[in-house]
């Protein structure tokens, strides 16, 4: 398994492999690095003919194989990209397991004229790709690239370049504060940059602007907490709550975010049953489409009764936290344990 620096070195030396598997949390960074492989391999004049993109959520093995087997047009090589290839996850359904097994066999003797690139996104930051046995097996025939989050100067440089591309200058102090405050995901970063630019039109960006416009970073942790509740993993749920407390988050704020999460899941579940699609629901809950997609998946893990009871538990706990006779941390732990049993 290599990192992005290892990939960059190989590309600069012109040493491209026959197949790649990317895994990480940030889809934008993954796609930017896949584009480097495409640009190095495919002549821009014939890109439409020698670059094929397939949806990994619904692709069949035959579709992948046919795309790879077709000869390139006026080029030595072609590139086939399978995005969001969830059949590469450690645990999948029977259909995904079948596609993965066929892929492993196919990669033992792939066509020399094609570079096959696949990627999937980690569910959360706690997922460790090194423990995925499917990736370990694929390393025998493919180059597995672990895409970590950008940090430090690399992060500052990348974020600053986005501001510049959009015609806005941000000071070094404000840039660093923005990078430290925003969620480290470039889909989110770009959206928040757009909001900041619109809000500060005609003037410089200040620290106060950043504080006012950015969403709370703890929302991502609460998503993970609720997801562990859906999986009946009490210890991990409480661990996340303790992480939030150690970061200095107020218990009432944590409870409010959990209650908001359950409320959104209830609304989304209703919307799905009414036939609403991802874009419609994203507008209703005022969240980006890619976040709404995750919430839709999470909502399916709960019944209406479970979500209703979880919301009621949040309200009952709020009353107790506002009283002086209860240990607030203990009450939060009791609430989390109770949600696991509804």
How many separate domains make up the residues? 3
Strand percent estimate: 5-15%
What's the architecture of the largest domain in CATH terms? 3-Layer(aba) Sandwich
How many helical stretches? Answer: 17
**CATH class designation of the largest domain:** Alpha Beta
| Computed Rg | 23 Å
Indicate the CATH topology of the largest domain.
Answer: Rossmann fold
Helices and strands, in N-to-C order?
A: HEHHEHEHEHEHHHHHHHHHHH
Assigned CATH superfamily of the largest domain: P-loop containing nucleotide triphosphate hydrolases
The global form is globular
Uncertain stretches:
none
Strand order of the largest sheet: 2-3-4-1-5
Class by SSE composition = alpha/beta
* Major beta-sheet overview: 5 strands, parallel
Oligomer: single chain
The end-to-end distance, rounded to whole angstroms, is: 41 Å
The portion of residues assigned to helices is 55-70%
Secondary structure tally: strands: 5
The averaged pLDDT comes out at: 90
Question: What would you say this structure looks like, in words?
Answer:
- The protein folds into 3 domains: 4-147, P-loop containing nucleotide triphosphate hydrolases (Rossmann fold), CATH 3.40.50.300; 152-213, Helicase, Ruva Protein, domain 3 (Orthogonal Bundle), CATH 1.10.8; 218-341, Zinc Finger, Delta Prime, domain 3, CATH 1.20.272.10.
- Helix content is 59%, strand content 9%.
- It has helices at 4-12, 27-41, 47-50, 61-69, 94-106, 133-138, 152-165, 172-181, 186-199, 207-213, 218-230, 234-246, 251-273, 278-285, 289-299, 304-321, 328-341; strands at 19-24, 51-55, 78-83, 114-121, 143-147.
- Strands 2-3-4-1-5 form a 5-stranded parallel β-sheet, with helices on both faces.
- Helix 16 packs antiparallel against helix 17 (328-341).
- The two termini are 41 Å apart.
- The model has no long low-confidence stretch (mean pLDDT 90).
């Amino acid at each position: 398994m290599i990192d992005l620096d290892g990939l960059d070195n190989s590309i600069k030396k012109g040493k491209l492999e026959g197949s790649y598997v990317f895994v990480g949390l940030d889809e934008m960074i993954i796609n930017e690095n896949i584009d480097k492989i495409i640009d190095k391999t495919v002549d821009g004049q014939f890109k439409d003919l020698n670059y094929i993109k397939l949806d990994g959520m619904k692709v069949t093995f035959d579709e992948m194989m046919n795309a790879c087997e077709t000869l390139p047009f006026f080029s030595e090589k072609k590139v086939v990209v399978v995005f969001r290839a969830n059949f590469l996850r450690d645990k999948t359904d029977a259909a995904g397991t079948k596609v993965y097994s066929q892929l492993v066999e196919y990669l033992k003797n792939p066509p020399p004229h094609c570079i096959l690139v696949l990627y999937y996104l980690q569910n959360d930051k706690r997922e460790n790709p090194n423990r995925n046995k499917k990736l370990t097996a694929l390393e025998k025939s493919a180059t597995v690239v672990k895409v970590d989050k950008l940090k430090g100067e690399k992060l500052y440089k990348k974020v600053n370049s986005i501001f510049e591309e959009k015609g806005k200058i941000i000071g070094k102090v404000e840039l660093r504060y923005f990078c430290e405050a925003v969620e480290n995901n470039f889909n989110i970063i770009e959206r928040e940059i757009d909001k900041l630019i619109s809000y500060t039109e005609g003037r410089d960006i200040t620290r106060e602007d950043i504080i006012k416009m950015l969403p709370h970073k703890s929302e991502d942790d609460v998503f993970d907490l609720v997801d562990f509740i859906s999986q009946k993993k009490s210890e991990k749920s409480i661990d996340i709550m303790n992480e939030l407390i150690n970061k200095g988050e107020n218990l009432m704020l944590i409870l409010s975010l959990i209650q908001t999460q359950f409320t959104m899941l209830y609304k989304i579940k209703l919307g799905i049953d009414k036939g609403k699609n991802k874009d419609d629901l994203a507008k209703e809950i005022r969240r980006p489409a890619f976040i709404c997609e995750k919430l839709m998946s999470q909502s399916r893990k709960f019944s209406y009764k479970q979500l209703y009871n979880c919301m009621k538990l949040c309200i009952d706990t709020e009353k107790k936290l506002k009283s002086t006779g209860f240990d607030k941390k203990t009450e939060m732990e009791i609430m989390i344990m109770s949600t696991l049993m509804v």
